[in-house]
Design goal:
With 207 residues, the protein is of the alpha/beta class. 41% of the residues lie in helices and 24% in strands. It has one domain: Vaccinia Virus protein VP39 (Rossmann fold, 3-Layer(aba) Sandwich), CATH 3.40.50.150. A seven-stranded mixed sheet has the order 3-2-1-4-5-7-6, sandwiched between helices. Helix 6 runs parallel beside helix 7. The longest helix has 22 residues.
């Protein structure tokens, strides 16, 4: 099938992207790895020995960073509905995290331990229509928040991708109700034209 002009332009831009080139050279599965690196360098959320859950993890760029920084004493559980190639030191659950069964699978792996950090770089399949894409994005953020509130230890943290627009202020208020500290951050690795930002809640208050 012949590609459209817009898809050819996107592909050309993608191939020329600094972070795409770096990811290939340094062995990361996606350019998104650099976003998490930058966030962690600023906020220090990936501590050695941490128990981390990566939601919507495929292809695994964030899990690669998480397992490296959590170290041999830590544990990373990656959850995605898509199949994901193995990463040494990462436990992979192929499941839909919106289903209760995925929470049960996760609890089997964590045992009595509570999670230190939940990370999510998920985004909906974008249609290009803001009125459709924004509510879908906010829905995923709300699901991630609900999931985290069921598994985080007290003082744990949640990091999620959002898109600035309708519903964001309500989402910030939701986070402020559940966490002692809420931060907004746009990494340099985010594309300049993108509305994406990352919302970080630290100091989970517990349920």
């Amino acid at each position: 099938m012949k590609r459209s002009k817009s898809s050819r332009r996107w592909l050309a831009d993608h191939e020329d992207d600094e972070y795409v080139k770096r990811a290939r050279a340094e062995g990361y599965r996606s350019r998104a790895s650099y976003k998490l690196l930058e966030i962690d360098d600023k906020y220090h959320i990936l501590r050695a020995g941490a128990l981390v859950v990566d939601l919507g993890a495929a292809p695994g760029g964030w899990s690669q960073i998480a397992v490296k920084r959590a170290g041999s004493e830590g544990k990373v559980i990656a959850l995605d509905i898509l199949e994901m190639a193995p990463i040494q030191g990462v436990e992979i659950i192929q499941a839909d995290f919106t289903e209760d069964s995925s929470l049960e699978d996760l609890l089997e792996l964590t045992g009595e331990s509570r999670v230190d950090l939940v990370i999510s770089d998920m985004a909906p399949n974008l249609s290009g229509m803001k009125d459709i894409d924004q509510p879908r994005s906010m829905y995923l953020v709300e699901l991630a928040y609900d999931f985290a509130s069921r598994v985080l230890r007290r003082n744990g943290a949640l990091l999620v991708k959002c898109f600035e627009g309708e519903g964001m202020e309500a989402t910030r208020q939701l986070f402020r109700g559940g966490f002692d500290s809420v931060s907004n951050f746009k990494p340099r690795a985010s594309r300049a034209a993108s509305r994406e930002l990352y919302l970080l809640g630290r100091g989970f208050k517990g349920r």
